[in-house]
Write a structure and sequence with these properties.
Helix 1 crosses helix 2. By secondary structure, the chain is an all-alpha fold. Helix content is 85%, strand content 0%. 4% of the residues are buried. It is built from three helices and no strands.
Length: 79
């Protein structure tokens, strides 16, 4: 029983590690010349758009994309 629990915990840890790594990669992809806050906001928006694509909801994708663009346009670019 103890081995099964340990394997299950390792799988959960590995899954969380994968999610964290994906989040970091998204953040790095959006970094560019922008501030950390803007990069983080863009990464979160892209994550929402990716999730909507998974759900195959085109209306939601369009609405989220418009919403994210509106948010990004409202943030000042720090150089």
């Amino acid at each position: 029983m103890d081995d099964k629990r340990r394997i299950k915990e390792n799988i959960i840890d590995f899954t969380l590690l994968g999610k964290e790594q994906k989040r970091r990669e998204r953040l790095r992809a959006f970094k560019g010349p922008y501030s950390d806050d803007m990069a983080l906001q863009a990464a979160r928006g892209q994550a929402q758009i990716d999730k909507a694509y998974e759900l195959r909801s085109k209306k939601l994708v369009k609405r989220l994309r418009d919403e994210v663009l509106k948010q990004l346009m409202s943030v000042d670019v720090k150089r």
